[in-house]
Design brief:
Blueprint (H helix, E strand, L loop, with lengths): L1 E6 L2 E4 L4 E9 L6 E7 L6 E7 L9 E3 L7 E6 L4 E6 L8 E8 L12 E2 L3 E6 L1
Parallel strand pairs: 2-11
Antiparallel strand pairs: 1-3, 3-8, 4-5, 4-9, 5-6, 7-8, 9-10, 9-11
């Protein structure tokens, strides 16, 4: 089993920044990719970004949704088993509950492909 705990959410004004953290524990050796998803009120959960724990020279190590490219950056600290989502130039439409998820396979954008989920952290962007 893998446990994922998100933190770092909060209230921020439009144009501001937040950094979310996803700390993994348990049997993390079985996971290969970690993704961030979000669910806005009244909407389906959607893919935000994903990263592989180990990136080889030939790998595509990260993936982003078009809506966050150039504003959000996903990164990892293998020593801390933690994945980060740096969110800059936040917009009111970024308001959502943000979840991190892990899977044993390659990076995927469909939430059904992920096996482990955190409890979520609320991000609210005011205009």
């Amino acid at each position: 089993q893998v446990q994922l705990v998100e933190s770092g959410g909060g209230l921020v004004q439009a144009g501001g920044s937040l950094r979310l953290s996803c700390a993994a524990s348990g049997s993390t050796f079985g996971t290969n990719a970690v993704g961030w998803f979000r669910r806005a009120p009244g909407k389906e959960r959607e893919f935000v970004a994903a990263i592989k724990w180990v990136i080889f020279w030939s790998d595509v190590g990260t993936s982003y949704a078009d809506s966050v490219k150039g504003r959000f950056t996903i990164s990892r600290d293998n020593a801390k088993n933690t994945v980060y989502l740096q969110m800059n130039s936040l917009k009111p439409e970024d308001t959502a509950v943000y979840y991190c998820a892990a899977r044993g396979g390659e990076i995927a954008v469909a939430d059904a492909e992920y096996d482990y989920w955190g409890q979520g952290t609320q991000v609210t962007v005011s205009s």
